[in-house]
Design brief:
With 226 residues, the chain is an alpha+beta fold. It has two domains: 96 residues, Phosphorylase Kinase, domain 1, CATH 3.30.200; 87 residues, Orthogonal Bundle (Transferase(Phosphotransferase), domain 1). The chain contains seven helices and ten strands. The radius of gyration is 18 Å and the shape is globular.
Length: 226
């Protein structure tokens, strides 16, 4: 472990990430000066410390600790691609990752920042690279793709060892091609995005139809704009 990372070790030891039931986001206990949480998931939380501005620290809950080494192995297989964050090493319950600046595609919708076709193609190229490494590009969604100077950067590779296609990215591509041109520079209200997300997550995957779902989204959004 480099000296840079050791500057943050003491701060990380003061924090605890606690897993929750029913796939709910983790909770964080403790406090360390300078350490800032920049992301929360169902297995881990991500921290940033100004003493190491190029690094981020993904700390796992005790319940999900076995996923740490699995995810580190995934990053090792993806390290040749420019579309993914880098993993520089591991601690007892965390990964040391590259700190990625930019805004997520979710934030782009909130702020009315246009998302170009190049960004979408970057993600397609990233997905193909994942497949070439014998992995499965799952769980790619609006909050897992960053916009960085007009190009895409994909974060959170933790599900790439799972089987099956969750179709999340395919559905986003369909929405981008058929619906996004109507709202590309519109600041979409948070309540609309959260409502759409909740609807989508509650859909029965066996009977899910993207066209019907898009009609419901359109009615909600266009009704708000009147």
């Amino acid at each position: 472990m480099t000296e840079d990372w050791k500057q943050v070790e003491d701060a990380l030891r003061k924090m605890e990430v606690v897993g929750q039931d029913n796939n709910k986001p983790v909770t964080i206990l403790g406090y360390a000066e300078g350490l800032r949480c920049i992301g929360i998931g169902t297995d881990a939380a991500v921290f940033y410390h100004p003493a190491t501005p190029k690094h981020a620290y993904k700390m796992y809950s005790a319940e999900a600790l076995e996923k740490k080494d699995v995810e580190a192995g995934i990053y090792e297989r993806l390290q040749a691609s420019p579309f993914f964050a880098q993993c520089y090493g591991t601690g007892p319950n965390y990964l040391v990752l590259s700190f990625e600046e930019g805004v997520t595609l979710y934030e782009c919708l909130l702020q009315g920042i246009p998302v170009s076709g190049q960004v979408m193609q970057d993600v397609e190229d990233a997905r193909e690279f994942v497949r070439q490494q014998g992995l499965n590009p799952r769980d790619m969604h609006l909050k897992n793709v960053f916009l960085q100077e007009g190009r895409a950067k994909v974060i959170d590779v933790s599900e790439y060892v799972k089987e099956g296609n969750d179709n999340r990215w395919e559905h986003l591509v369909w929405a981008y091609n058929h619906f996004y041109p109507l709202i590309s520079e519109v600041k979409v209200p948070l309540w609309i995005l959260e409502t759409v997300t909740n609807w989508y997550n509650r859909m029965d995957t066996a009977s899910f139809g993207i066209e019907d779902f898009a009609k419901r989204m359109s009615q909600l959004f266009m009704g708000k704009r009147k």
